[in-house]
Amino acid sequence: MTNLPSEPEFEQAYKELSSTLENSSLFEKNPEYKTALAVSAIPERIIQFRVVWEDDKGQLQVNRGYRVQFNSALGPYKGGLRFHPTVNLSVLKFLGFEQIFKNALTGLNMGGGKGGADFDPKGKSDNEIRRFCQSFMSELGKHIGGNIDVPEIAGDIGVGGREIGYLFGQYKKQTKTWEGVLTGKGGAWGGSLIRPEATGYGCVYYVDHMIKYASGGKDSFAGKKVTISGSGNVAQFAALKVIELGGTVVSLSDSKGSIIATEGKGITPDMINIIADLKLKRKALADIVSTKDFSEVKYVEGARPWTHVGNVDVALPSATQNEVSGEEAEALIKAGCRFIAEGSNMGCTQEAIDAFEKTRSEKGADALWYAPGKAANAGGVAVSGLEMAQNSARIKWTSEEVDAKLKDIMKNCFENCLNTAKEYITPKEGEHPSLVAGANIAGAVKVFKAMHDQGDWWH
C-alpha cells in the first residue's frame, strides 16, 4: 500500500529500467546498486506553480506549470519543456527519469530533468502564446540557470523556436543576464546549427550502426523501406536523412491519422517540406492529403501506420510515448521488420518491448532488433549539450563540425550499449545483444557511480 497517487507513465519507465537491471548480472556483481536505484527513482526536487495569463479577449486564464529536477550527479539538470493538455507529474517524471540515463549515454556533463505545462498552444494567437510564455518564465526563471538547470526547448510537443524566443527574452529581462540557460535557441542568438535536425539525424545514425553490425558491415540504409510515425521535427529530419542515405520512407503521421505511400518512390523531400510548413501552422495532415502534391499517398484516418504499411525493413516511432502496442509490435515482426528504434521517448509499450526481445532471443540474427529511445534519440540532447559548450566559449561551430560531433556521439553511444550488453547479459550463439539492456545498464552505472562519489548514497 502507498499513499502516493498512481503515476502510470513514470511507473512504466521505472519498471522498464529496473527489470532490465534485475535480469542482468549487474546486481549480482554490484548488489549495492539496488540502493542506488531506489535513491535515483525519487527526484531531487519538484517545482509546481500556477501560470496566469490573459487571452486576446482580455479574460484571465490559468494553467499548471512544472519542473522536475530529477538528478544532477553528472551536471546541471537538462531536459525539455512540453506544452500540452496531457502534461502532468507522471508524464514529466517519466520523461525526466528517462532523461537522466539518456544524458549519461551522450558522454556529456548533463543531469536529468523535465518540465512543462498543461497549456495547449493549438488555436492560440502569437500574442496569447507570448503572454503565456512570459508568465511561465516569470516563475520558472527563479529556479533555473546556466549552471543549475538548462531546459531544452526544441523538438518536444508544443514547444518550438517561437516559444523559446519568448521564454529567453523574459528570462533575460528578469535576471538581467544573457546566459545559455535554454538550448534550442535561434541561430542568430546563441543556438547551435543542426539542433533542429539532431534527434532525427541521430536516430538514423544509430540505426545505421545497427544495420552495419548485423550485416558485418555489408549493408546500409540503401534500398530499405522505412516506416516513421509523427510529423514534427524528429520525424521530418529522420525521414530526410533516410532518403539521403538511399532508403524509402513509406509513412508519416499525426494525432489524427497517417499518410501511407503507395507503390512507387515513397514520401519525397518536397512532401516533407510541405508538411513542415503545415506543422508550423499547427494544422493536421488531413488538411493536405487531398492536394495534388500528395496524390501518391493514401490517408488512414485515426490510425497509426504500423499495421498499414505492409512489409518494411525499419520502423522509427517518432511521435509520442506508447505509440507501438504489443499487437502492433507483432504486426511489425510479421511484416519482416528487422530494426526498430525510438525517435520518441518510450515510444513502445512494455508489451511491445517484450515481443521484440522475445523474437530477438528466439530468432537470432534474423530477428527484429530493438533500440530504446534513451539511446536512439539521444542526438537531440547531445547537440543541446554542444550548444551549451558553444555558449560557454562564445563561439559557433559550423554545421559540418556539429554533425561530425553528433555522428561520433551516436557511434560511441551504440558501441557503449552493445559492449555493456555483452558484459552483463551473455548473448546466445548468433543472437544480437540486447540494446535495451545495454542502454539501461550503461546509463545507470555511470549515474550510480557519480551519485556514490558525491555521497548521494553509500554502503
Question: In words, what does this structure look like?
Answer:
With 459 residues, this protein is α/β, with parallel strands linked by helices. It has two domains: 37-178 and 440-459, 3-Layer(aba) Sandwich (Rossmann fold), CATH 3.40.50.10860; 196-371, 3-Layer(aba) Sandwich (Rossmann fold), CATH 3.40.50. 45% of the residues lie in helices and 15% in strands. Helix 3 (33-40) packs across helix 15 and helix 7 (195-214) packs across helix 14. It is globular, with a radius of gyration of 21 Å. InterPro entries: Aminoacid_DH-like_N_sf, Glu/Leu/Phe/Val/Trp_DH, Glu/Leu/Phe/Val/Trp_DH_C, Glu/Leu/Phe/Val/Trp_DH_dimer, Glu/Leu/Phe/Val_DH_AS, Glu_DH, Glu_Leu_Phe_Val_DH, NAD(P)-bd_dom_sf.
Topology, please?
Blueprint lengths: L7 H15 L3 H4 L3 H8 L4 E10 L5 E12 L5 E7 L5 H18 L5 E6 L8 H15 L8 E4 L8 H15 L19 H20 L10 E4 L4 H12 L3 E7 L2 E5 L7 H12 L16 E5 L12 E3 L9 H9 L4 E3 L8 H14 L5 E3 L1 H4 L2 H15 L5 H26 L10 H19 L6
Parallel strand pairs: 3-4, 3-5, 6-7, 6-10, 10-11, 11-12
Antiparallel strand pairs: 1-2, 2-4, 7-8, 8-9
Helix pairs in contact: 1-4, 3-15, 4-15, 5-6, 7-8, 7-13, 7-14, 8-9, 10-11, 13-14, 14-15
Please give the radius of gyration in angstroms.
Answer: 21 Å
Number of helices: 15
CATH architectural designation of the largest domain:
3-Layer(aba) Sandwich
Largest sheet: 7 strands, mixed
Quote the beta fraction: 15-25%
CATH domain class name of the largest domain: Alpha Beta
The separation of the N and C termini measures 27 Å
Structural class: alpha/beta
Mean pLDDT: 94
Helix content: 40-55%
Which oligomeric state applies? single chain
CATH topology of the largest domain: Rossmann fold
The strand order across the widest sheet is 9-8-7-6-10-11-12
Overall number of strands = 12
Broad shape: globular
Total number of domains: 2
Task: Give the SSE string.
Answer: HHHEEEHEHEHHEHEEHEEHEHEHHHH
